[in-house]
Design a protein that fits this description.
Elements lengths: L2 H9 L5 H4 L1 H8 L6 H16 L2 H12 L9 H6 L4 H15 L13 H8 L4 H10 L1 H13 L5 H10 L6 H10 L6 H10 L25 H5 L2
Helix pairs in contact: 1-8, 3-4, 10-11, 10-12
């Protein structure tokens, strides 16, 4: 299993199949292309994740990535927010996938980071690095935010930035992350739900009616974990 595929699997919502392939994942984490320190960090992360009860691991993932938007794994949320530009960006990305024979299921959103990594795993190395380089400013900020929250997931984002041959200025990014208001607290989540509540009557609901969280049903973990 390649490094990109492994990181995509580990970043994805941890479904039961993850534990069925535990030995393979730990072996892949000892990637010889990583520095000794990074290799050990990745092996430790993988082992610690697999040591968790699946329900506990899933709850940890939801707390990290599905509460608020600042840690969203949907890349275009960080670029376009809820603007109409996001829709066109989605269409363009789907076309890029299809052009290279990569088809999505109906439940998959094309800008979902683990899915993008699965696609890039099938592309030439230079192309994969170039794609990740273009989103490394987002991935680097996710690394800083995860680190600020003392999440073990931070190492996965840091590895992706380094894979893209980008420089991690974690000090500056951590400073920025520490100054950002948290958007995953119960108070903020309640306020978002109130602001985005579905309207009734003659006014038809639009995209703003969508809740701020997203269901893990869109993930492709089963396909990704398969060797």
């Amino acid at each position: 299993m390649s490094l990109l595929k492994l990181v995509g699997v580990l970043l994805d919502y941890p479904q039961d199949e993850l534990w069925q392939h535990g030995d393979e994942l730990v072996a892949a984490a000892a990637d010889p292309g990583l520095t000794g320190a990074r290799r050990q960090q990745l092996v430790d992360f993988t082992r610690e994740l697999l040591a968790k009860d699946p329900l506990a691991a899933q709850d940890q993932w939801l707390s990290m990535f599905d509460r608020g938007r600042s840690m969203s794994l949907l890349l275009f949320e960080h670029i376009h927010g809820e603007s109409r530009d996001r829709g066109q960006a989605m269409v363009d990305l789907i076309e890029a996938y299809r052009k290279n024979g990569f088809e999505l299921s109906a439940k998959e959103l094309p800008d979902y980071l683990p899915l993008l990594l699965e696609y890039l795993d099938q592309r030439p190395l230079a192309e994969a690095r170039d794609w990740l380089h273009h989103v490394s400013h987002i991935v680097g900020l996710l690394a800083a935010r995860a680190g600020e929250r003392q999440s073990p997931y931070a190492v996965l984002f840091e590895i992706l930035v380094e894979f893209a041959e980008g420089k991690l200025e974690l000090g500056a990014l951590r400073q920025r992350a520490s100054e950002e208001p948290r958007d995953d607290t119960p108070e903020v989540m309640d306020r978002l739900w109130e602001e985005e509540a579905v309207r009734f009557g003659t006014e038809a609901p639009d995209e703003s009616c969508s809740p701020p969280t997203r269901t893990p049903a869109r993930h492709a973990a089963t396909r990704q974990v398969q060797p």
